[in-house]
Amino acid sequence: MSHRNGREWTLQPLLLAASMALVSIIPASQSSAPTLTTQAGEWRTVILQDGTVATLGPRTVLTHSYTRQRRSVYLTAGEALFAVTKDPQRPFVVETPVGCAKALGTIFSVTHRLRSTAVTTQEGIVATARLEHTDPNCSRDSIRLYAGDKAVVESWTPVVARTVDTAVEHAWAKREIIFTGQTVEQALAEFNRRNWVQLDMPTDPEILKIRLFGRFPLDDPERFARYLEDQLRWRRQQTTG
What we know:
Layout: E1 25-27, E2 35-37, E3 44-47, E4 53-56, E5 61-66, E6 71-83, E7 92-95, E8 99-103, E9 107-113, E10 116-123, E11 126-130, E12 143-145, E13 149-153, E14 161-163, H1 166-169, E15 176-183, H2 184-194, H3 205-208, E16 211-217, H4 221-240
Parallel strand pairs: 1-3, 6-7
Antiparallel strand pairs: 2-5, 3-4, 4-6, 5-6, 6-9, 7-8, 8-11, 9-10, 10-13, 11-12, 13-14, 15-16
């Protein structure tokens, strides 16, 4: 596909494996291993010991352990949406390498990538803070996230709540992605992060900065590649016409 500077560029997906998206519902209490792992292109819904429903996105590693005092989840990587069963006597605490989130019964998500953790509350109230190993209940210097709030936890910035659209934030749990002005570069990164099929990143900075809007199936990167090609072809025709 050409554009106005005459160079050629086409999004050609590289098939790394034949496996595509997989959705399963597995009672976690029936498994002897407390660690749950998803591969690229795999979505999984699990029911934890207390009835909490956890939806895991691709490339996620999650360990869970329950005691009489605490329900503990450790998210090493990836993303998980929790519909937490209410239990006032046992807080539900999710820890990542840099942050933590605590709830008694609510719906919220935790995402961890590299050295950054994001917590988004869909219903109820969630406390979130930087991880402190001497604070197992995630109470020290925590902030409250109400429905529609999101906070990003990093070691070098303050933890601050901001308002978001949870339908957009949690679209990944339904194998969808909603773009609200993200660039082509950001969009391709989202698809490549979750799928075996990898889309080539164009080298033209002008293409990378194009902003996108719309809803797309997250487990079909090839369809998204065709959409981008059509959009870029239309832009070229508008410029040269």
